[in-house]
Specification:
Shape: rod-shaped
Order of helices and strands: HEEEEEEEEEEEHEEEEEEEHEEEEEEEE
Structural class: mainly beta
Distance between the termini: 176 Å
Radius of gyration: 53 Å
Strand order of the largest sheet: 2-1-7-6-3
Largest sheet: 5 strands, mixed
């Protein structure tokens, strides 16, 4: 076997090795390519950004491993709260997402720079190349997370009675959301029902009818607000509207009714009265006060108590008999009497000297015991006849001629008189007993009562 050894020049070997090294150094020849600009949208409190166009990097070195693959996207900018992640190294697809919650109220939009990086010439990432710089503009979409809030918790205004106003006052609410849709107030509404007021979408409150100071002197109205996303304010605003009367000359600050409790001493009738002149000239003042107690059941202290309360005050027994009850099927002897309204549904009967109530024998006792009580109250008007005439309140007489009284309570010459005949069954015996009480103010319309527990 013959072996031939060929000798190659050393210089030629070095040239071949040198060319091989040059070819190996030119494996990653191209830079990655991306779009020049991107526009993205992210909803606040979310993390994914929707980019247009999508984030994709291309490399002409593909399909060469490493050199034709995309290994990273890097963001350059002042504190941009985003990161870009490679989803597929071969296709170059990536995604842009937020590092944490993004708040539209803090910042509505962001602008930064992004670049793509290939994987270099080998596994160690050496000789990597980066793309040109692309501008990314991100807009933060708002979420309707804040309800409207009023700038003032309470509003006050004063109107003059009898006028219709286009705008009494204006309430104003605001919203912390960042977008025009959710930060603008689109509507106001009156929460309180049955009020003579209306409100428009700008918060102007007006009256829908003429207001009267005598009917109502002030109003409190609750108002709410809605943003354009129909989110309602969590707290309503209170609107206080005072009604001012039209200036009318005359006495003001007094009431027609005056309540007085007997025995309490002097009392000022009109402590807050004043004369309103409406800035007009005043030459003199003349006043006259008249107290009226013509109503048969009003104006007297006895009206303070019901019939049951009077019986308790006078110490009447629980088995007392009502001689003037309300008319009914069983108590019809008061049906023809004139009546007037009283307290606690008690009836007040009016007697003018021409009518009387004939109490049945089964109701009224024929004879009084050693201890008894007669309770009554009355308001006495001017007597239509002579002063010497007797005005009988209660009388029990003989059945036959009715000329002999067993007992009687009557008014005679400004005195209250009670007549009692203990032995009325003895025909020939006449031993009546009379008791007199002087009524000094009787004809001035004061209230008089007779309460006795032993006679």
């Amino acid at each position: 076997m013959i072996i031939k050894i060929m000798r190659v020049p050393v210089a030629l070997l070095l040239v071949i090795l040198g060319q091989s090294c040059v070819r190996g150094g030119k494996v990653n020849k191209h830079k990655p390519w991306i779009e020049t600009s991107y526009h993205g949208v992210i909803t606040e409190n979310m993390d994914t950004v929707l980019l247009d166009p999508p984030l994709v990097a291309l490399d002409k070195d593909a399909p060469v491993p490493y050199a034709g693959e995309i290994c990273a996207f890097k963001i350059h900018g002042p504190e941009a709260p985003f990161e870009a992640v490679v989803l597929n190294r071969t296709s170059g697809e990536g995604v842009l997402r937020a590092k944490g919650p993004v708040d539209c109220e803090s910042q509505k939009e962001y602008t930064f720079i992004i670049q793509a990086y290939d994987c270099g010439a080998g596994p160690d990432g050496a000789s990597w190349k980066k793309s040109h710089k692309a501008v990314v503009h991100i807009q933060v979409d708002d979420v309707n997370e804040f309800p409207p809030a009023f700038r003032e918790p309470e509003y006050r205004a004063t109107v003059t009675e009898g006028k219709i106003y286009d705008s009494i006052l204006q309430v104003e609410a605001w919203d912390q959301d960042c977008s025009p849709q959710y930060s603008q107030i689109c509507n106001y509404d009156i929460v309180t029902t049955g009020t003579p007021f209306a409100i428009d979408r700008n918060g102007n409150i007006r009256n829908t009818e003429r207001l009267s100071y005598d009917n109502q002197q002030s109003y409190e109205v609750l108002v709410t607000a809605f943003d354009c996303g129909q989110k309602r304010a969590t707290e309503s605003a209170a609107v206080h509207i005072d009604v001012k009367p039209i200036c009318k000359p005359g006495w003001q600050g007094w009431n027609k009714r005056v309540d007085y409790e007997p025995g309490t001493g002097s009392k000022q009738l009109f402590p807050k009265i004043h004369l309103e002149t409406c800035d007009g000239p005043l030459s003199g003042v003349r006043a006259m006060v008249e107290l009226q107690t013509n109503h048969i059941g009003k104006g007297c202290d006895r009206e303070t108590y019901s019939e049951k309360a009077l019986q308790k005050l006078c110490g009447a027994a629980s088995g007392s008999t009502d001689l003037l009850p309300a008319p009914s099927m069983s108590t019809n002897w008061t049906a023809s009497l004139l009546t007037d309204s009283g307290r606690d549904s008690d009836l007040i009967f009016r007697f003018d000297g021409r009518q009387a109530a004939n109490v049945p024998e089964r109701v009224v006792p024929q004879n009084l015991t050693d201890q008894f009580t007669i309770a009554t109250w009355m308001k006495h008007g001017p007597s239509p006849g002579l002063r010497a005439e007797k005005e009988t309140l209660l009388c029990n007489s003989d059945k036959t001629e009715m000329n002999r009284h067993h007992y009687s309570l009557y008014v005679h010459n400004c005195r209250l008189v009670f007549l009692l005949r203990r032995d009325f069954t003895q025909v020939d015996t006449f031993r009546p007993a009379e008791f007199h009480w002087k009524l000094e103010q009787h004809y001035e319309g004061t209230l008089d009562a007779f309460c006795g527990n032993s006679i």
